[in-house]
Structure formats: structure tokens, C-alpha cells
Amino acid sequence: MTSQVSSPAGQADEADEALAGEQRALGAGHASSGDKEVRRLDRVIIRFAGDSGDGMQLTGDRFTSETASFGNDLSTLPNFPAEIRAPAGTLPGVSSFQLHFADHDILTPGDAPNVLVAMNPAALKANIADVPRGAEIIVNTDEFTKRPMAKVGYDSNPLEDGSLDGYSVHPVPLTTLTIEALKEFGLSRKEAERSKNMFALGLLSWMYHRPTENTEAFLRAKFAKKPQIAEANVAAFRAGWNFGETTEDFAVSYEVAPATRAFPAGTYRNISGNLALSYGLIAASRQADLPLYLGSYPITPASDILHELSKHKNFGVRTFQAEDEIAGIGAALGAAFGGSLAVTTTSGPGVALKSETIGLAVSLELPLVIVDIQRGGPSTGLPTKTEQADLLQAMYGRNGEAPVPVVAPRTPADCFDAALDAARIALTYRTPVFLLSDGYLANGSEPWKIPEPDELPDLRVQFAAGPNHTLADGTEVFWPYKRDEQTLARPWAVPGTPGLEHRIGGIEKQDGTGNISYDPANHDHMVRTRQAKIDNIAVPDAEVDDPDGARTLVLGWGSTYGPITAAVRRLRTEGHPIARAHLRHLNPFPANLDEVLARYEKVVVPEMNLGQLATLIRAKYLVDARSHTQVNGMPFKAEQLATALKEAIDA
Question: What tens digit of pLDDT does each residue of 571-591 get?
Fold first, then answer.
């Protein structure tokens, strides 16, 4: 979806609006429309929850797409089981999708939902702890029978025993209403039941005045080969809308105005992190004027990149789904040797398998982008949950001294720019580069301003074309390890170029010639040279957000950007001065980071691991960096993080 928005009236006003928006109560005004009240809100957090077969991810995606086309700022958090089909009606089988949308700049999917749509008892029990008192709960009453409730430990019906008295509960027989709405289609009961998620989507679309045309077009396109099913889903969607319009139980609907002041003018679309990263890799290949080659093996949560890139052969993209992780990166490294912009995608367990070939790429000094969509570990761990625990693996997870640059995006949309940056470093410095995203960024989404082509960096490279060294006897030869004085990058010679034949392999090379060398002094020189090449990579200085001259700095990396920034906003609104800096480049660190850290009495590093960046900061800069860690498979909540940061300020 794309939409046009206007430029903000002023940056100061936009900042004030954003700060106020994080704190304002939801009810900002009300109006009447016909017989029903329409209340204006500045932001809403909705969570759809149900069995993993109930289509909650599709429901959330459609609501998100319509919200993006309407012009709201938004942030999403899909949360689903690792099993392909967990046991129906059980707590491990609950799938949910949370969407935070607003009329101002927002940074996170929200801490607690204002509205919970629970399709069954398991969905209610798994999510009720996150729902604040007074919130609205829409419950599919058809599923609250004895057996489904007993399966999740309900001794009595929570809709009748008073346990939900503190909430605004809307009991809706979603299954019955859906089946009734689809009687004319002649579907079996089981087939008709599958459309109850579209009934729920229609109801929520009515409640929040979401557009409907694109959802109906989407359903007809998705089920184009089954037109009866397509029209049944459209009918269920319309029935949900009409139910909201006519039932007395929903006396109020809500409006959340477009976030026109939060965005510069331009064309926007809703985008997930994996999709943005895929587009960034394609853009990098076009800007480098090189074919893009992906050697990959499917693994959650990175597989979407393989799926997406396989659709773009028209841009010179080649995708190879290998038989395993090792073959995937081996093919990618071969493509890099052959002159392609080479990429391999994986998650933490796959990085472990790829480590030997990454070391080979360091030795060969060839450009290769290694995309690690981090997930909870160790071992198979938590395939569908997020974590930031691969930083030290990316830094040191190879034998010998094998330094590799590390780049980390901070938001779903930023994955596009981070991919371009990783490709820039790989191509310019002839090195493998780690791009560390994570499951939260990969599956989450937000509005993305589509850049103009002339805004993208020029990534073109010069292949070696002829001899580059003259021997003592005057003979001109090609030395594959003769380096550029500025970047220390070696020449990139495409195989088959006459006169540029040279040795390649994993054994240590002689400086310049690339011949096999066991000389101790040469090995010492090559190790230090490869390290110096990484240390000298040009990366931007760290930017510090510190309007009040704070004594405490909160330092983050990767997907903690949203929760950290939201928490800092809350603290500043409460009158607590605190500074913030966020790192994209983790190896090498920005050149000014030493000076930045020295300005503050306290440095706090929130991470979704047990303190990996804090360990690096303490070791390199001898700063008493304090960790605030979380490894529960979920992103930080802004409120909890704000509490922890305030304790650090006051300590």
C-alpha cells in the first residue's frame, strides 16, 4: 500500500506531538455519527489472538495494510508458535498479532493492548495478563464450552464467573454468526468456520473506521482460483462490518486520524523488516551494477528473504536453495569469486554451520553479505521468538584471527538502508560483512518512505583489468593481494580475465603474490593487515540525543531502538534528563564512541541477551557499562525499560 502525506509544519511541533502522544489518555474527543457515538483517539493498540489455524497473522496483516493506506503511523508485533500446527486449543498453539497505530510518531508495538480479540479460551488465558483493566475484550463465545476451557485449565467459564469484571467484555458468537452469514454459499460447516477471522476483521474495521476496498480486492485475488471461497470471505468480512453497525453491544466506534505531522512528504508503504532487507539487497546490486546471488537454506525467521528474492529474476537476482547451510554459503562465496554481489541468509544455528566458510571468505578477502536474522537460542532454541544473542558469535565465532564487520538495523524500515550499508562495506573493502537483524524486526512492520533512485549511494566497483605490479626485471604481473593504500582492499579479479590467473584457497597467503606461505613473519603481517583493514572502515560518528546535558547515557543497538527511544521520551516528559545513542556499526565502532562514553557518569546498555555489547564496551573502552538484559523471546516493553533506566539515573 502507498499513500501520500504532507510535510510537517515544524520539527519542534512534531517532537512536541510525539512526546505528548506517548503520554496522552486515549480519549481525545468524541462526535456523533447517526445513532452511534464516534470517539476520537490519538492511538490504539489491538491484539488479535487465536489458535494457530485461526488466521490471526493474516487478519493482523490486513488490518495493518488498511491502517497504512489510511496514513497512520504504526508498529506491529506478530507472535506465533514454532510448530507448524501446534495442538488445537492449547496454550502453546496460540498465535497473536499486535498492532499499535496512531495519529503521531510512534516507536513500538505498544506495551499493553487496549483491545484483545480472543478467538478461544486458550487465546484469552495466554494474553489476559497483558491486558490492562478497563480494556475491551472481544470474545468468541462459541468456543467457550466445557472441553476447550478444561484443556487450558479453566475450572469455570471466565465469561460468567466474574473474573473479567474489570474489563469491557463483548461476547460475540463469531462462529455462529459467520456460518449464518455464509448459508447461501453451500459450504460445509468446517469450511464456513474458517472465515470467522474475516468476520472479526470486518468488525474491527468498523470499530476503527478502516478502509475496506483493498481487503475485499485482496481476498478476491488470494482466492482467485476458488471464486466461491473468495466471495464467502468477502461476505464474512462485510457481515462483521454490518454487525458492528447494527448491534447494540458496540455503541461506540473510534477514529484515529492520519499521522500527517509525523512524516515528511512522500510516498509511503507498509513494510516488514525482511521485505525491506530484500529490497535493500536488490537496490545494492543495481547500484553496484552487479548481479545479486543468494545462496541460502530455509530457516526461521530468515526464509522470507529467500522467498522474496526468488521473485525478482527481472532484476538479475539468482537464488539457490541449497541442501544445507554449508552448501548455501559455499555457493555464495563462489559467486563472489565470480564477480557477483553475493549474499547468504540464515539465523544463529545456521551461522554456526557457516563459520568455516566465513573464515575462508576472510582469508580470500572477497565481498560477501551474511544476513543473520537472530532468534532465541542456543541450539534450535526458540525459532519464532526474538533475541540479540549472536553479537559475540558474529564478532568472534571463527577460528584464528578472522575479523568481520558487523552492521545492525534498528527498525523494520531501516533494514533497507542497513542492507545498502553492508553491501557498501563488503564491496569497498573486499570482506565478508555480518548484517544482524532479528525476529522482531524481520516480522514487524512500519511505514517506509520509498526513496528516489538518485538518493541511493553509488556502489559501483572496478574489477582488476590487467597487471598491477612490476617485478625487478621489468616484467608486469598480477598480484592478487596487492592492496589499495586507502582501504587496504585487494583487487577483485573475475575468473577468465586473461593474464589475471592467480592462486586461491584457505591456506595462508604470501603478501602481494597470494602464494601459499608458512613464513611466521608473513603470517603475522597478514593477520595484522586484515585486522587493520576492518579497523579502518569508514563509518559515521555516533550521534547522541542529549538536549538537557544528562549524566546518564543509554546505549543501544539493533531492535532495542524503539523501546529505548520510547522509554527515554517518557522519562524526559517526567523531568528526568537522560541521553541516548544507538549503534548501527558494531565492528568497527564509530571513531568518536570513546569520546562520547567519556562524557557520561553512567552508561546503561539494554540488550536482549546477557550483556554482549556491554562486554565489548567494557573491554574496549574500560567504561563501567551497566547491562539491563532480557531474554524471554519478546522485545522490551517501554514502560518496564523506563522504570529500569530511572533506577539507573537515581542510583
Answer: 999 999 999 999 999 999 999
Residue 10 has pLDDT above 50, yes or no: no
Start-to-end Cα distance in the chain: 47
3-state SS class at 512: strand
Contact 590, 555 (CB under 8 A): no
Q: Which residues contact 526 (CB under 8 A, 6 or more apart)?
A: 508, 509, 511
Neighbour tally for 38: CB within 10 Å: 15
Which pLDDT score, from 0 to 100, does residue 34 have? Answer: 52
Neighbours of 537 (CB within 10 A): 18
| DSSP code per residue over 543-573 | PEE-TT--SEEEEEEGGGHHHHHHHHHHHHH
What's the average model confidence in pLDDT over 559-582? 98
**Is the peptide bond between 301 and the residue preceding it cis, with omega within 30 degrees of 0?**
yes
Q: Cell 499499535, residue?
A: 100
Please answer whether residues 243 and 253 qualify as being in contact, where contact means their C-beta atoms are separated by less than 8 angstroms.
no
- Output the CA torsion sign for 70, 75, 79, 82: positive
Q: What b/e string do you get for 370-385 counting C-beta neighbours within 10 Å, with b at 16 or more?
A: bbbbbbbbeeebbbbb
In which order are the strands placed within the sheet that holds 73-79?
73-79, 94-102, 43-51, 115-118, 136-140, 168-172
Residue at grid coordinates 525476529: 439
Q: What's the pLDDT score for residue 28?
A: 41
Nine-digit cell string for 56: 490471526
Count H helices and E strands in the chain, helices first. Answer: 21, 26
The Cα–Cα gap between 570 and 554 comes to 14
Q: DSSP E strands: which ranges in 56-119?
A: 73-79, 94-102, 115-118
Residues 412, 234: Cα–Cα separation, whole Å? 30
> Cell for 379?
541450539
**Phi-psi map region of 575: left, alpha, beta (phi>0 left; psi -120 to 50 alpha):** left
pLDDT, position 245: 95
Instruction: Please say whether the beta carbons of 146 and 124 come within 8 A.
Output: no
Of 602, 598, 597, give the one whose Cα is nearest residue 576.
Answer: 602
Burial profile 317-331: b = 16 or more Cβ within 10 angstroms, e = fewer? bbbbebeebbbbbbb
